[in-house]
Amino acid sequence: MSAASKSVTILDYGSGNLRSAQRAFERTGAQVTVTSDRDAAMECDGLVVPGVGAFAACMAGLSSVRGERIIGQRLAGGRPVLGICVGMQILFEEGVEFGVQTTGCGEWPGTVSQLPAPVLPHMGWNTVTAGEGSVLFDGLDADTRFYFVHSYAAQTWEWSDSDSALPPAITTWAEHGGEFLAAVENGPLAATQFHPEKSGDAGAHLLRNWVHAL
């Protein structure tokens, strides 16, 4: 199936300007819709969950459109979901910001917390160490750089492949004051801490990889 015959929905739950993400996915050749409509989010080939700002605010917005249920129902049916930036963070069990603990979607175990770095936010270009067998990073060199803007991240990976019917997870790491998860691929659920839509040719390549795999 060609990219042009694949449909991508960017879930609009009030988290930031989604136009750059829309343009980036349109350049892959996919048919792109930006909406909070449940039916569109359920029926598309690939659902994108973006996110900027605070973990708690993103979870509140997601809950307002029943986004957790949409994500969970898609994954239960093996339908692909891609989280970006805070859209990745909210897939974990919880986030802690300024001492406030917020429950996440719980698709992955673990806590999102502040990076132990002297300079925050982590803003700018950084390399990643892609996991073996990665689909997202296929065809990209090891020194490829991606654009990050964040102060918080998941810094441990607590998923147990033996407890899940999903394929083993592929984890990709980066460093800023310590190691953190830059991306995860776990069957139909994938996510990036960086912004592929702001990462130039490298980000465009990654998005094409995801769309072509739908």
UniProtKB/TrEMBL annotation:
Reactions performed catalytically: L-glutamine + H2O = L-glutamate + NH4(+); 5-[(5-phospho-1-deoxy-D-ribulos-1-ylimino)methylamino]-1-(5-phospho-beta-D-ribosyl)imidazole-4-carboxamide + L-glutamine = D-erythro-1-(imidazol-4-yl)glycerol 3-phosphate + 5-amino-1-(5-phospho-beta-D-ribosyl)imidazole-4-carboxamide + L-glutamate + H(+)
Record domain Glutamine amidotransferase: where: 10-212
Keyword Ion transport: no
InterPro entries recorded: Class_I_gatase-like, GATASE, Imidazole-glycPsynth_HisH
SUPFAM superfamilies associated with the record: Class I glutamine amidotransferase-like (SSF52317)
Keyword entries, A-Z: Amino-acid biosynthesis, Cytoplasm, Glutamine amidotransferase, Histidine biosynthesis, Hydrolase, Lyase
Location in the cell: Cytoplasm
Role of this protein: IGPS catalyzes the conversion of PRFAR and glutamine to IGP, AICAR and glutamate. The HisH subunit catalyzes the hydrolysis of glutamine to glutamate and ammonia as part of the synthesis of IGP and AICAR. The resulting ammonia molecule is channeled to the active site of HisF.
Protein name (record): Imidazole glycerol phosphate synthase subunit HisH
